Amino acid sequence: MNITHVRMLTVPVSDQDAAKTFYADTLGFEVVTDQSMGPIRWLQLAPKGAETNVVLADHMPGMTPGSVHGLMLETSDLDADCERLRRAGVDVDGPQDLPWGRQATFTDPDGNGIVLAEG
């Protein structure tokens, strides 16, 4: 096998505009692609400089909005980012000191579970 990284992760959402606002404005992701492909809107975002992109999809059969749990994001300043999220109205649990490191959890507008870990 010659796999080098995860290219994309699809996150099912009910409202792509609301999800785009959350991931871009609240989390600071950059829009990689936002285009119509026939009846489908392809909305792809990523943290600046990241190799892995997040696709915010409302069109994937069998994928229910809010069903993703454990999407882990890494930060260099967990305390500051938790405070920023709280100021933006996000309900953040943590940060917590755990045997494997410090992390906090929260959800996106659809209830998809996100872990923010200090790297």
Task: Summarize the structure in words.
- This protein has 119 residues and is an alpha/beta fold.
- It has two helices and eight strands, in the order βαββββαβββ.
- It has helices at residues 16-26, 78-87, and strands spanning 8-12, 30-37, 40-46, 53-57, 69-75, 93-98, 101-107, 113-118.
- The strands form two sheets. It has a four-stranded mixed sheet with strand order 1-4-3-2, covered by helices on one side. The chain has a four-stranded mixed sheet with strand order 5-8-7-6, with helices on one face.
- A hairpin with a 2-residue loop joins strand 6 and strand 7.
- It starts with 7 loop residues before the first strand and ends with a strand.
- The model has no long low-confidence stretch (mean pLDDT 96).
Estimated helix fraction: 10-25%
* Percent range for β-strand residues: 35-45%
The low-confidence parts are none
The main sheet orders its strands as: 1-4-3-2
Structural class of the helices, strands and pairings?
Answer: alpha/beta
* Rg, alpha carbons: 15 Å
What order do the helices and strands follow? Answer: EHEEEEHEEE
Mean pLDDT: 96
Distance between the termini: 27 Å
User: How many strands in all?
Assistant: 8
Tell me the number of helical segments per DSSP (H or I, 4 or more residues long): 2
Major pleated sheet? 4 strands, mixed
Question: How does the overall form come out from the CA principal axes?
Answer: globular
